[in-house]
Amino acid sequence: MTTNGLLERVFTALDNFRIEIPSWGFANTGTRFGKFVQAAAATNLEEKFADGAEVNRLTGAAPTMALHVLWDLPNGLEDAERVLALAKTTGVQAGSINPNLFQSQEYKYGSLCNPSAEIRAKARKHLLNSVEIGKRLKSKDVSLWMADGSNYPGTQSIRKRVDWLAEGLAEAHAALGEEQRLLVEYKPFEPAFYHTDIADWGMALLLAKGAGPKAKVLVDTGHHYPSQNIEQIVAWLLHEDMLGGFHFNDRRYADDDLTLGSIDPYQVYRIFGELLSAEADGLPMDVAYMVDQSHNLKGKVEAMVQTVVTAQELYVKAALVDREQLAGLQEKCDLVAAEELFRGAFWTDVRPLVKAWREERGLPLEPLAELRRSGYVERAEAIRGPKQGGGGGYA
Amino acid sequence: MTTNGLLERVFTALDNFRIEIPSWGFANTGTRFGKFVQAAAATNLEEKFADGAEVNRLTGAAPTMALHVLWDLPNGLEDAERVLALAKTTGVQAGSINPNLFQSQEYKYGSLCNPSAEIRAKARKHLLNSVEIGKRLKSKDVSLWMADGSNYPGTQSIRKRVDWLAEGLAEAHAALGEEQRLLVEYKPFEPAFYHTDIADWGMALLLAKGAGPKAKVLVDTGHHYPSQNIEQIVAWLLHEDMLGGFHFNDRRYADDDLTLGSIDPYQVYRIFGELLSAEADGLPMDVAYMVDQSHNLKGKVEAMVQTVVTAQELYVKAALVDREQLAGLQEKCDLVAAEELFRGAFWTDVRPLVKAWREERGLPLEPLAELRRSGYVERAEAIRGPKQGGGGGYA
Amino acid sequence: MTTNGLLERVFTALDNFRIEIPSWGFANTGTRFGKFVQAAAATNLEEKFADGAEVNRLTGAAPTMALHVLWDLPNGLEDAERVLALAKTTGVQAGSINPNLFQSQEYKYGSLCNPSAEIRAKARKHLLNSVEIGKRLKSKDVSLWMADGSNYPGTQSIRKRVDWLAEGLAEAHAALGEEQRLLVEYKPFEPAFYHTDIADWGMALLLAKGAGPKAKVLVDTGHHYPSQNIEQIVAWLLHEDMLGGFHFNDRRYADDDLTLGSIDPYQVYRIFGELLSAEADGLPMDVAYMVDQSHNLKGKVEAMVQTVVTAQELYVKAALVDREQLAGLQEKCDLVAAEELFRGAFWTDVRPLVKAWREERGLPLEPLAELRRSGYVERAEAIRGPKQGGGGGYA
Amino acid sequence: MTTNGLLERVFTALDNFRIEIPSWGFANTGTRFGKFVQAAAATNLEEKFADGAEVNRLTGAAPTMALHVLWDLPNGLEDAERVLALAKTTGVQAGSINPNLFQSQEYKYGSLCNPSAEIRAKARKHLLNSVEIGKRLKSKDVSLWMADGSNYPGTQSIRKRVDWLAEGLAEAHAALGEEQRLLVEYKPFEPAFYHTDIADWGMALLLAKGAGPKAKVLVDTGHHYPSQNIEQIVAWLLHEDMLGGFHFNDRRYADDDLTLGSIDPYQVYRIFGELLSAEADGLPMDVAYMVDQSHNLKGKVEAMVQTVVTAQELYVKAALVDREQLAGLQEKCDLVAAEELFRGAFWTDVRPLVKAWREERGLPLEPLAELRRSGYVERAEAIRGPKQGGGGGYA
Hints:
alpha/beta; TIM Barrel; 5-stranded parallel β-sheet
């Protein structure tokens, strides 16, 4: 490739690449053993939008922020105006709407899958409210993760719960606006330990298909078994036109919610590779890239900037693969040559290329350095520090 | 439950329980590091049928034997008469027909998914031959496991292979007779290491649905990730009316092909529980129970008898659960009571009950002891020993 | 075995079997997504001792309760008198002493392994205080679990932290009283996600050996990789005379802290089998059986009674194995006979035998039924309910 | 770093980096389902040495070849002269000596751990022979991997086998020459499925320590649980001065024996990072880098060249880390900065640097291209093709 051709390809990729960051990524989070409270963590929606705007200012790739209904719009629709106002002032738009069907005490034995018709009704209502909030905010995706499941064999009917779940999703789908989608997330473990009602992509796909054409599957990279081939699942969902979006994060063992690319960057690269391959083949695609991480130790804004930058770099690497040449080598089963071509792009140091793009687009050349230089975090610490609560505990 | 009621339930369960044993379970098998050759291992089809008949004589629950086209009918349809004759003399009927799409050198880069149209055609032809053999033998199921996949990222197009696979299955489905079915097996690893073309139940289900209404999913219990909840997959497949059958075996780490119930008997019990629950709820069900094991160290016939007896016992345990009472406790979320009821049946020592059934049905009271007493294995050793080949090796 | 011989063996096993329950098993616990608050959960040390006494009254096998320094003796040594008084009134003795080196905000980057000498000193002091508390309470074991580790590659020096840890343990060991022991627990994941400073039994063993002869390894059954053979680790620790005790619980995926025997009862049986085998061989053994569970959904006291009863039953099953006969079959490599003998004891329904023992020892015949009948939980709900706090939340 | 400083560091690293290749990596290998026979695969020791020499010619980093006693020196000591002659003519020296304690039919129930004293004696004798071969060949390491274990709970005494194993290793250690070492390899699964006698690094370390000071642990990267932190084990073994060497390979699920860095290159980088960190800290180190792979699909020589080159590149990346600066950031717990520094070196494209080194050292600039250009493989195919055997099969 000529240098110009290379730069053009990189610039196009970066111009098109957007990744949504979650409001809860700026708040104090932790493990069941407690939270390590950060002085600079956001304590309210205004601060979350401010943080989101800072990330977007530094990276140029994070113009929307996922919202969590319970934490960000505790009064439901009433809070929508506040969100719209914040969007206007910060330039960060409301992204996907995330219902909360796990925190209320009533959901102890499930939400949409609870054996109690009353509690199921409550859960459905919350889901419908989330759809309405999405409409008001002109947000495209309602992104549903449920914690439903059971902890012990024999204690719940797996099949009955499938039916209850299907009913709830169908009802929510029926309420969707023209431009809205329902993204169904799966997870094979935690916080339910014996069975989770939507355990894998197969279940999510069947439920989404059953709900209706505007329901798609959401892939959270941390919601798989240790050695599962995630990019193959992505390829299948693309093949079926059922991929709605991603929750990116990384992990070693379980749903560790570490920053993207921190443990296995080659896997993220391969996932982007499947997406770019499908795009090159002209498949119908409408995929939302989102981050879902828990910055327990790293600084919140710092971790998010690092995440977006890493995502950009890995995406650019994947965009460098000559897909036509690769297809030829695959066809011939020239394994080593195909692999070298594919992995060669991963080995390319794209940091100077991304820097060139930043310069061209008037962005800070070194986002993390610029964040440190700006004093943003120190100012947040001073203002927010006194407002922080305690870290909680295990028992 | 009254003693009579209990016995009736047990007898009904056992009268209905049939499990198919595989012809290759009587042959010498091993690992990539070599085979430990057994003198009594079957060296030809006649001996396999004899072994199968012995297992059926001892257990009364194994009237059919799965056949492997390449190993048992190397001449294809021509060999069908031989099989029918053996079935007549031994009383063991031909069970599922298993194509072989992995042993030929041409399948190095795949069979139905091979980038070469020529090799795909060869694989399809073999699959069609298998369907024809099934017809001739009046065998119901063509049971398809493929080893297709790739070993290195980037070396094959995952999505193109999906299409090729779908075409092959549709063609095979079109050739099925009225009473035939096509069972699609999945496996997430081995012998392909980076990706296997049918990696999980979701992929198998989509492929089976795409192939046609007579295609169903086959669950091999060893083809899952370590902590996967297999009974939930069973429940989902039953819910979708897409469960065609099982390959039972047990394992600790990978596809170890150990004897059923040897590592985690409670899991097998839970799987039977889902099946009996669906039956109690009147779901449409047509599920073939089959064994797929590799008796590398245990005596072949001995291991098979042990397997069938263990399956009977675990099935009877599951049949003892009062499903109505359990449903009530599940409804109330009375977790501990529900679990105790469910697990209580597992704790019940059913061996005397199964023995009573054997007595009633004129079967040997202690199948393993009777096998030892009979001298069957010693006779086989004397006759077959001299015919055994070598154990092979790793490199 | 004669019926009398059988009963004698069962009674001896049960008379010897004691399992320690943790005070925190009676408090409200949950996951990082929140806690489901139980009205009857213990809200203070008095209530924990009351609950412990109730479990012991019902099972006759739980005479001691593990204490957590931070939660149960927040004032350190000063609280010891209160504990001793409670032990006197309830008949439940103070069991192992559990330091807390994870909840304080200062431990964000580690406790005994923190790069800051000051924070390490604080952690050591807490550990020494725990040793003093143990002395005062005449408690034998200081049971150390640390959450130390790191979340991202490159962010900490794994080897430096080993040295700091070794120093801290040596100091604690030096302070142990004549009868005291230091139990070193290992865990490969959570809450640190990239590396945990004591990740496996090998590390725990080296650290314990380095600390001194009164340091032993603590095995938490939930702290292993999915398919790990835990009983083999137990066998090795017994072989090295380095096994100090257990934290029992069950799990499907990670450290789920479910009730013992709820997911894989055969594994617990095999663990007990290794212990009884070592005992039969006359190995030096001093092993503390303890429970460490998180009853997020099940009733606290109910779950604990169920746990102790299940432990008794599985222990009795393991005690039924004729070890001499088994050794003979193992020697001959008569695999199926050995396995049938070994697993046969597991299949034995020991519930009537345990009931006979209860009758003989004047214990309630059906502990769980007796708990329900007693109204203990309802009374606790009435008194404690109004005192319960909130359930917390993820973000 | 200045460009000169950078190049110097790279050149020093590459000059010091040697990796041993295994003779069996050039032979036909496969899975239990059969072997895909390659025309160019080596069929005898001469061809293996020729292949090894070609790899060394192309990479300049593989001057020794691991030998397998059974396959390469079937006549034991008698074959040593042949090996020495080949070493002279090819310039490739005999590397580690690998006993074979798994292929003989007698090892069905174990070798050094077999309940039969006679079979144990045979296994010990083979091990002693291997030591003698090592002496004669002036090979430093006897590299012991055993397949011993059991397939079913209760069928073998885990502890008795520990004692037998310890005796065998002590005997072998006593026979070691002044310069020889005994490397003890561990593996948690396959081909034994329920328990393997040396399952993890803890067991290997205890056995090595018990055998004597010249026994060390061998880490095969594929012999771990899916999410295990291998570099932490490396760090611990270095800390204890117990790391003897590596068998490098990569995998997704089990012991897949794929080429190094093909699935998770960042992990290999982190392992090299721990080694270079220990070296920088001046720890005593004597670590043999070896490859153990099964090239089932890739061309044998091609795969080996690719492996060595990838190892060089990942090693150079790890050598670029400024360890002093990193230590400072770790000390301050500046997580993101530390991670960026650490991972930054991984992102550096070192291929031009390695090329510069090749030029300086008179090596082919592009080893894989040079291999293709040379026609070596085609010549081997022509000569060896007619000599190839069949691929075997599962049953």
